[in-house]
Amino acid sequence: MWGERLGKLGVKTAVFGLAANFGLFLIKLYISVSSNSLSVYCDAVNNLADTLSCAVALAGFIIILKLDERRSKRVQSLASFLISIALTVTGLYFAYNGIERLMYPTAVSFSKKYAVLLVITIFVKIIMGIIYVSINRKQNSPVFIALIIDSFLDSAVTLAALLGLSLTIKINYAVDGLVSVIIGIAVASSALKSVINQAKYLVND
Questions:
Q1: Residue 90 φ/ψ region, left for φ over 0, alpha for ψ in the -120 to 50 degree band, beta for the rest
Q2: Residues 80, 191: contact at Cβ < 8 Å?
């Protein structure tokens, strides 16, 4: 059965994404608290949002297990819509906090250990994106596509957070606040496009 095949693959994928993103959230939360970096903190919150998004995807794929193809596509579209809304709100949250940090700068600390951990998380997200691409080739789904885009975007977000943290130390200015604004706009813009596309599908279908 089409829905059962997609549902089983989707459940495994969502569980994998949920566990991986929550692990990345804990690592980045530790770094952000230790260094007082807003950009890394926002990146950590982004991974928490990704964890919740995977939980939504998991619920959607469990429902899909017993649905036909048409209803399954609507559930997938709805899951993608909810995930994109969560990411849009997260992006706006980043931008707000970044503006606040620019207005009220605070001291941050940096170490090679933090840099190494962040670089590792970048590669983890890239690997996750590659895995999602492979899965989507087996069974195309808008949820998988959303996870692919999110994974590669997240790797760029973490790189920006790392640069923001290091530059803040070097030039003694709240660069991480500026980076957070840029990250927020990028995440919100990308997610908002998906919100609009999925909303059109849900309304017109």
A1: alpha
A2: no
